[in-house]
Design brief:
This protein is α/β, with parallel strands linked by helices and 690 residues long. Among the domains are: 167 residues, Rossmann fold, CATH 3.40.50; 203 residues, Dimethylsulfoxide Reductase, domain 2.
Length: 690
Amino acid sequence: STCCHCVNFCGINVKTQDGVLRVIYPDEDRAAVFNHGICPKGASGVFNTYNPYRLKVPLKRTNPHKGIDVDPQWVEISWEEALNTIAERLKKIRAEDPRKLVWHHGHGKYLIQDKFPKAFCKAFGTPNVVHRTTTCEAARHVADELTWGYHEILPDVEHCNLLVMFGVNPFEAEQWARWLDHAITDARERGMKLVVVDPRMSHIAAKADQWIPVRPGKDVVLVLALARRLIETGRIDRDFLLHYTNAPQLVGEDGHILKGKDGQPLVWDAKSQSARPYGEGVEPALEGSYQVDGKAARTAFQVFKDSLKEITPSYAEEVTGVPAAQIAALADEMGEAAKIGATVVMDGKRLRYRPVAVHTFRGMAAKEFGVQNWRSGLILQMLLGDIGAVGGLVLHHPMKHPDYLEPSKCEYPPKRVDLQTSVYFPHATHNVCQQVALTILDPEAYGLEYRPEMQIIYATNRPFSTSDARRQFEGYAKTFNVVIDIVMTETAHMADIVLPDLTYLEAWQFSPTRWTPGTRHTAIRQPMTNAYNIPLDAWGIIWELAKRVGIRDAYAENINKKFKLKKHTFKKGRDYTSREAVQIIWEEKTKKPFSYALEHAFVGKQLSVEERYLHHTPEDTFRGPGKPKMKLYADQLLGSFEKVSETVKKYGIENIDLERYRIALSPLPTKDHAFPTPHREAKDYPFYLM
Ligand code: SF4
């Protein structure tokens, strides 16, 4: 089966005896594509399933008052009563205004795949499906999306010689941890050098060649100082900057990129000494200031270089706490390790070879201006040219979403209760779960045209994983709530009806999996017991509700669309069990019989050199004339800021601080991004207690 005690989805073998779970081992076969072991948390899944405090029957609140200190006065009810009560509520809301339903999941996304609740909500008519990424790494994803059109990155550890990790700790916990931990250990044995930048002496810092304790929140200044040193010493990959990124594009005095008549960005053609789109035969200049139609323009690279004037070595030392000499030495080492200009032949193909990579997860990103913090890390790697190169940073499906490189529409009034992609969160490509409670408490303040009435909360305990728990609880007090979970969480305490769920060791699930630079795989989970004889899991609950609300066929149709099912599909006019659902998706996605899934739980493959380095990579996506370019200079943010300003003026919006938005929506990371609000407010404190 496949573990789901966190989001690594490790392969597991579970030993049972007389229908009782005894012990969980790593699935040794899965080592070929992902995990070589499992962690203590994964091994403890048995206790989770046999937890005596599991919810076992549906519960109904009888006390109309809701609060964290209020006794809900639960009574046990039948599944029939619970499902009918919920369905009646849903029908009423759907008839009035389906947007008044909000569906939440956190870990639930990984248990049953969010495509199912999304399909349900689509059929129901609400846009409000809210996941939890914004409490974790979303800012890093947004930085990636703004820069190269999608998210998910990994260092090519197998071929890397110098790995610099910023606040990422796969030896404790992290997405991809169970691949990264052994991949890094193998690489260290091969001789890869590991540098860890982290305020805290983490487990991985303890195992590193070098630990650089940076002052919390100041990473961006450290990275900009490294960038300045690389440029000053000439250790930059000019070819990469010119042909894969928008570094040579011309920026006008207003900060926008100059465009030709056809809307194409202009570069300075060194051959014709004129501003032209980067087409065949054009030789773009990387640096310099030019006159275009009588107006001054600089290349984006020049704008970036000029912006680094304020990041002097002494300033960087003062802000980050890292000695200037150490910053210079690290930059020099990275520049050398990048082997700029080198190639390597693999499987008969000549490939760019830059065996240095910078990686982060929450470390640089989970803070105010986190997007700009990680943008600086990506720009640093554009300078080194390691993005998409052998031994460098691997991008997963670049330009999957070209729209991420455009300014936001900044919609107002907002469509969604979490205000995603509205004028409030213009580039929130991930749901803004923290915001839901705040909007529910005062919809008019955000221009929301409806008042949410019902929340279904599946396997997430949001007040305990977001800021301002008190407001989150107050938000729950305003609506009719259904919680689906395995135990009575604090969120469940605020429910009107609580439904028990099966654990990942008891349910059929089509499991998400993690890719690696060299592998892909598809996996399932299958039930090994049912400790408390619970008749339905969350998947079955959604199906039952769809049926009782009268949207079953529309739900089935939307499942087919979300999973892109063509040959094996959900048919109208009939019910499915969760096992049948897993079988349909498995057979469609793998083209293998379900019996294979029952025996192995996964199917995987090793990527060829072509697939790994040349196909859907920066090579075929960005390189050369006429292709989109990675955004060293994220000009779309400037467009978004102008749109925010216009919208604020047009609608007289009072709860947007334009100055903060101006800083956040800067086309380049700057020192301002090292001073988020708590730092500014606590500037007189001599130390941080963490
Ligand atoms: S790291 Fe793997 S074994 Fe550990 S909890 Fe996560 S998925 Fe399970």
